[in-house]
Amino acid sequence: MAGSAGRVVRRWYPNVLRRSLQVPALQLHVSKTAMRASQKDFESALSQVKLLKDPGNEVKLKLYALYKQATEGPCNTPKPGVFDLINKAKWDAWNALGSLPKETARQNYVDLVSGLSSSSDSSSQVKPEADRKQPGYETLVVTSEDSITKIMMNRPAKKNAMTTQMYNEIMLALKAASKDDSAITVLTGNGDYYSSGNDLSNFTDIPPEGIEEKAKSGAILLRDFVDCFIDFPKPLIAVVNGPAVGISVTILGLFDTVYASNRATFHTPFSHLGQSPEGCSSYTFPKIMGPAKAAEMLIFGKKLTAAEACAQGLVTEVFPDSTFQKEVWTRLKAYSKLPPNAMRISKQVIRNREKEKLHAINAEESRVLQERWLSDECTNAVMNFLTRKAKL
Ligand SMILES: CCCCC/C=C/CC(=O)SCCNC(=O)CCNC(=O)[C@H](O)C(C)(C)COP(=O)(O)OP(=O)(O)OC[C@H]1O[C@@H](n2cnc3c(N)ncnc32)[C@H](O)[C@@H]1OP(=O)(O)O
């Protein structure tokens, strides 16, 4: 019992409050007298409390006061000093119960917990992902939970290759996430790949105005897409669940944190495809890993393992694939509880001095690519893939 009530306190209270509101093991031991009238109800309320969502500080103080009154009787400890704000609030709440009998306090505690349980019954259930899924996306699964918005690329049969529709949906999802009440945002992939990069069939859908118009609209889409990452205001985390190719790799330089499974690889075969770097990688990669290592990736298409990408600073941390999801989401849930405004402002301070430069680089990379897409080198490479003559 003592252990389970201890867990309640750990789960509910934000760090500062939690440290101060910790109920010592001694206080968690329910005395024999206190248990006489409604021992079972009280015990079950004590364990029920740990399943509830955070009810807010006011209710937590009430619960604390009733618990103390039920187990120790009226408050007779010295009043904490005026600057000991949290202990003073606890003391005030307990002291306000005056000479309320232990049995009544116990009953009130049980009633309060039962009221909280019924009001949070529906929300305390873990809903299946399908129920939490935000509507309106065809190529993504977007969910928000625990102050984390997760944007999952969802074309596993095509290795999460990015179609025009997926670029547009990711932009929409990022814009929505920038305004929702989540603290952090995650991009990840469904299935064995993180993403195989640009869907090469994007190049086959030529409008009546011709190939030049296609290249022009592609460059605008690319520029808008990368701009969304440059401007994204909250901490943005990539959870790289498997191999990553092309643009899914280059934009990693614009994320705040990149976690990778040890199954992930990082590959930017631009020269093989007759193309050139995008996603601001012509700037971020040399800055992150130094010009020589960046050239090996961006010019020669060297594929990095997750460990190599981590050693070169592109990846924050690598996890064994068997425990990847568990370890990463535990970490992210803890981060998502940090004060959101502080995180947002810290990101602004880090990002703002480079924003203008990044936008200019993005514009230039998109302009160069627009030309590349019209080259024979690019056309042949794409045709070779689409006619199954070549893979990476
Ligand atoms: C607006 C425009 C912005 C443009 C921005 C520019 C970005 C540049 C880039 O991103 S460059 C990178 C482009 N990507 C590639 O060149 C990868 C091509 N794919 C492959 O080489 C391979 O598919 C693989 C190595 C990723 C995986 O090989 P594997 O043998 O494991 O699997 P399959 O080849 O059988 O793939 C399964 C099906 O998925 C289709 N597919 C995979 N990747 C892409 C892709 N990038 N574009 C289109 N289709 C892709 C593949 O064709 C299979 O489909 P099928 O089952 O219908 O045959």
Quick structural overview:
Helices cover 54% and strands 10% of the residues.
Q: Give the C-alpha Rg.
A: 27 Å
Q: List low-pLDDT spans.
A: 1-34
Helix content range: 40-55%
Q: Note the main sheet.
A: 6 strands, mixed
Kindly report the average pLDDT value.
88
What fraction strand?
5-15%
Overall morphology: elongated
Helix-strand topology string: HHHHHHHHHEEHEHEEHEEHHEHEHHH
Total DSSP E strands = 9
SSE class: alpha/beta
Describe the oligomeric state of these chains in a short phrase: single chain
Catalytic activity: a (3Z)-enoyl-CoA = a 4-saturated (2E)-enoyl-CoA; (3Z)-octenoyl-CoA = (2E)-octenoyl-CoA; (3E)-tetradecenoyl-CoA = (2E)-tetradecenoyl-CoA; (3E)-nonenoyl-CoA = (2E)-nonenoyl-CoA
Function: Able to isomerize both 3-cis and 3-trans double bonds into the 2-trans form in a range of enoyl-CoA species. Has a preference for 3-trans substrates.
Subcellular location: Mitochondrion; Peroxisome matrix
Enzyme class: isomerase
Account of the protein in words:
There is one protein chain. This protein has helices spanning 2-12, 15-21, 25-28, 32-35, 39-48, 57-72, 85-95, 102-124, 129-132, 164-179, 211-231, 247-250, 281-289, 291-298, 306-311, 324-335, 340-372, 376-386; strands spanning 140-145, 148-153, 184-189, 236-240, 244-245, 257-261, 265-267, 304-305, 317-319. The protein has 392 residues and is of the alpha/beta class. The protein contains 18 helices and 9 strands. The termini are far apart. The model is unreliable at 1-34 (pLDDT under 50). A 6-stranded mixed sheet has the order 1-2-3-4-6-9, sandwiched between helices. Strands 5-7-8 form a 3-stranded mixed sheet. The structure holds ligand L24GHEU4. Ligand L24GHEU4 is lined by residues 158-159, 161, 167, 196-202, 218, 221-222, 245-247, 273, 275, 278, 385, 391-392. Pathway: Lipid metabolism; fatty acid beta-oxidation.
